[in-house]
Structures are given as structure tokens and as C-alpha cells.
Amino acid sequence: MLAVHQSRINYVLHLADNALIIGHRNSEWCGHGPVLEQDIAITNIALDLIGQARNFYQYAAELIGNNTTEDTLAYLRDEREFKNCLLAEQPNSDWAITILRQFFFSTYQYFFYQKLQYSNDVQLSAIAEKALKEVTYHLRWSSEWAIRLGDGTEDSHQRMIKAIDNLWMFTGELFLAVNYEKIGVNEGYGVDISLIKNDWMKKVTDAFEEATLALPPDDVWMQRGGKEGIHSEYLGHILAEMQYLQRAYPGAQW
Amino acid sequence: MVTIKIISEKNIWDLLETIVDPEVPVLNIVDLGIVRKVDMHDGKISIIITPTYTGCPAMDVIKLDMYTKLLENGITNFEINTILSPAWTTDWMSKAGKKKLKKYGIAPPPAQQSICTPDAFQKEEAVQCPHCNSYRTILISRFGSTACKALYKCEDCREPFEYFKCH
Ligand SMILES: [Zn+2]
Predict the structure, then answer these.
(1) How remote is the CA of residue B138 from the centroid of ligand 1, in Å?
(2) Residue B135 has pLDDT above 80, yes or no
(3) How far is A58 from chain B (nearest CA, A)?
(4) ipTM of the shown complex
(5) How far does the centroid of ligand 1 lie from the alpha carbon of residue B29, in Å?
């Protein structure tokens, strides 16, 4: 019983961490976007994602009890306790990498939330139903930009090729279930992510075709580990910045 | 002897109608459709609200304003609960709310929910300029100054404006 409860908590934290970390990454663009409208767009997307993270953290805190709050979960856990996919934590680098990361992630979230709406966990289903509307906008925006850059100038096309080289290896993890996800599927509250891989692939293939970009070969080595707390060197840096204030001044409010 | 004022559901709705969205102060929270239900049971009042957008930062302020307003009016036996499902939609915005938005210079969401799909480069819904009523308008950005708005420009009067986008 206890192990089952812990699995549900891990599952919710995984979804929360995914949304928070990529949301935080996008928020780093605030004031640095290539043009004002797109600066506003990427930070709006950050706001939606951090909002999703808050809903998941609030629910996780409720499941955990013991005075846990959304804030203690976001600000007081260490790197190894974060369960986000590696894709979410990859650095912004240039606009093409940010766009491709968001396109891969929004496509995944779009098909994932469609299924999560039918979770037998009413809270997860409610969060998914709500978030799906926002993710639909994110997917439209990020796919349009991926196509625009891929089918744009020689420079933007080259940058997209570099972005694919950088990020493709982190997409395999999106569809490989770890233990708490398998338990979630068995218990009826989780999504069988192996079932959304084809939808994801189709969306990406279609967009790449329009963007005149080639799909990487099938045998690219796929990185994994993020969902189980084994991260790339980048997550520690995000947490150092994001958690600094609460670590240095515990409980600080403004 | 303390006189006990009988509070009706209508009184509560009337009070809630005086609370405005801090980001679009021309709309009150009832116009906006975020107050879903007011229930009274054995003198205890339960109010159910739902956020417009998941990350809408105005929700915290709105909740605080609700507490303050009710307490100011001597109402203490109440609770405010947030629900996410069914998810808020622009269809819940009142007709009066849409009129107020337009007058304020923000293009209101369409009377009928247009279909939101993720397809790239799809045709945008025709949005009427709130200043000159022209439909010759173009989308500048699907994301605006707040989560609920998009940026548009009118090709006739040349004014930029915001559109409360369909959701
Ligand atoms: Zn006009």
C-alpha cells in the first residue's frame, strides 16, 4: 500500500518537474527574446508551464502531507530527487534549440494530456483537461517556428540541423516508462507512453518535411535517466539559480 | 441583542460582481465566468471558482479580494474552493462582459467558440477591430500582455489592439 502511494507521488512529481524545469528554461528568455512579440510568447508559455507545475505540486503536496507545500517541493529538493526528462533541462543556447526543444516537448505534452484526461485520478484528469487547451497553443506556435526556421534562410536551416543534433538523443526517454509510470498504467491513473510514440513521430515527421529537415537515423543512441533522478550537468545549475533565495533565506516571502 | 442579517445567495452574487479582474479591470469576476457556484448549507457559504488559465497570476489576487470583500460585509462563515474541471472557456464570459470588453478597447472572444487545433499556419478566426469595427485585421502575436490575450493590428484604422482569445 505504501509503495503504491509512493509511486503515485513520484508520478505526479515527474509531471510537475517536467513542467517546472522547461518552464524555467523558457523564462530565462524574459527580456532576451529575438523580437518583442516572441519574447512575450516564450514567457507566456513559461507562465502556462509553471502554472501546470503548480497544480501538480499542490496535488503532490496533498498526497505527501506533513506540511509539504508546492514551494518546498520546488525549492527544497535536490537534483537527484527531480524526475523531469533530460529534454526539459537542456540549455536554451540559441533560438533554434529553444524552439525545437519546445516543439518536441509540446508535441509530447499534447498527446500525453489527451490521454491523461481519462485518468481514473480525478485531479490528474482535471489538470490535463485544463492544460491541454494551453498546450494546443504552444504546439501551434512552436511547430510554426520550427517550420519557419527550417525552411527559412541558410543560416536558420543550419541552426535547426544543429538543434536536431543536440536534442534528438533526449527524445527517446519521453516514451520509455520507468517503474512508477508502469505502476501508474496498471493502477489506471497513468498514461501508457509507449502508445503515444507513433503520434509524436508522425507530428514531428510532418513538420520536418514541411521544414525541409531530415529525420535522424533510427540508430541514434538515446540518453535516459532524468525520470529516475540521473541528470545532465545542467540541472544542478538551474536549481542553484532557482533555489538560491529559499536556500539562503529559508521561508522568505515578498 | 445582536441583529442577524439574513444573507441570501443573491447577496453573495451581488458582492462578487463588485470584484474585478486586476488585469482587465473592466470585467468583474462574474462576467468573466470564473465564479462557478455559490452554495448555502446550514448558514455556511461555499463558493467555487475556476481559473481562466493554469498559470494566471491574477487568481491569487482575485481570491484575496474575495476574502476581503466578504469579510468587509460581515460574512465570515464561508469557504472558497478552486476547481479545474470542467475547464474554463471563453463561452462562459457573459454577453454583458463581452460588450464591456469591446468598449474598453479589447476585442471580445467570438460568440461561438471557434475550434482550437494545434495545426500550424491555420486560418485565424476573423477578429473585429474594437475601434472601427473593421474585419481587416491581422494577428501580430498569439501571445499578449496577459495569458488570455493575443495581439492584433487593424489594417483600416491602423490601431493595434488586444483580442481576448478563444479558449
Ligand atoms: Zn480599426
Answers:
(1) 11
(2) yes
(3) 12
(4) 0.88
(5) 28
Q: Does residue B118 sit in the same domain as residue B154?
A: yes
Q: Is the pLDDT of residue A74 over 80?
A: yes
CA of A108 to nearest chain B CA: how many angstroms apart?
12
User: Could you read off the pLDDT of B45-58 as tens digits, one per residue?
Assistant: 999 999 998 888 88
Residue-level pLDDT at B3 = 56
DSSP assignment of chain B? -PPPPPP-HHHHHHHHTT-EETTEEEEETTTTT-EEEEEEETTEEEEEE--SSTT-THHHHHHHHHHHHHHHTT--SEEEEE--SSPP-GGGS-HHHHHHHHHHTEEPPPSSPPP----TTPPPPP---TTT--S-EEEEES--SSTTEEEEEETTT--EEEEE---
Average pLDDT over residues A143-165: 98
Q: Tell me how far the alpha carbon of residue A46 lies from the centroid of ligand 1, in angstroms.
A: 31
Domain that includes residue B131, residue range: 105-164
Query: Does B94 map to a domain?
Result: no
Residue in A with minimal Cα distance to B167:
A133
Asked if CATH classification 1.25.40.10 holds for the domain at A2-248, the reply, yes or no, is: no
Q: Report the CATH number that the domain containing residue B124 is assigned in CATH.
A: 2.20.25
What's the mean pLDDT when you consider all of chain A?
Answer: 96
User: For residue B51, which residues of chain A lie inside 8 Å, CB to CB?
Assistant: 51, 130
Q: What is the least distance, in Å, from the CA of B55 to any CA of chain A?
A: 4
Identify the domain boundary among B30, B62, B88. B88
Q: Is residue B61 part of a domain?
A: yes
pTM: 0.93
The verdict on B115 and B76 lying in the same domain is: no
> Which of A40, A47, A131 comes nearest B141 by C-beta?
A40
